[in-house]
Amino acid sequence: MKPTISFFIILLLTSCSSTLRNELTLNCACSLTEYFVASTDSEDNNTKEFSFINSPLFDLDVPKEDFATSCAVLINLDSEIDSSSLIKINIIKDKKGRKKTVSYRYDIYELGKITPIYAEIRMIINAFVENVYKDQFQECYKYLGFEIESKEYQNMLNQFRAGLNDEYINTRVIAFDKKNEGYNIHGTVLTAVSHLKLFTMRFEKTNEGLKIVRFKF
User: Fold this and answer.
1) How buried is 85 (Cβ within 10 angstroms: 0-12 exposed, 13-18 middle, 19+ buried)?
2) Which residue from 14, 19, 86, 181 has the least number of CB within 10 angstroms?
3) Topology of the domain comprising 118-216
4) What crossing angle do the helices spanning 108-133 and 150-162 adopt, rounded to 10°?
5) Minimal CA–CA distance to 116: which of 16, 209, 191, 215?
């Protein structure tokens, strides 16, 4: 069973949309700042930076680069991000004033290539989890790209459902990685009791479209 995270959100944002703020802060479960770089260098001057400070996700084996990629795609989806901008994601560990920063930079054009797949995956996992909540396991099965015995499948989803709070809000992608002709996902189920339940999935393209080929809750 995947762990859950209790969270308290501090907003220090200035110019991105409220929808984007909510998406990013719920995904990181941490303090977040956002700003443009003021520089005479043309590349730096077009860079929009987002810093995620002391997120608990990385203590639970969520890959930092995959998290950063997922955030960059969400930012790219926001209409207020200029098409000429670069996006820089800073992941900061601040322990009593001693900071350790890991940074990732993304080009808007390159992000545009993976955005449609990301959006489709997000739609699939939301439909999958919503059907688990409704106990419509047969509907969930159509999203799978592998064979599994009926009893094992039923037990797996029953265990997942038993660990969920009834006050469901939505499901979200928090880490995204394209690897070996497939896509590795870390996701969370968000409920009204302010905690995130983590899970992992792998998606691959099949003759019937994009399918879940592995999942773990």
Assistant:
1) middle
2) 181
3) Nuclear Transport Factor 2; Chain: A, (3.10.450)
4) 100
5) 209
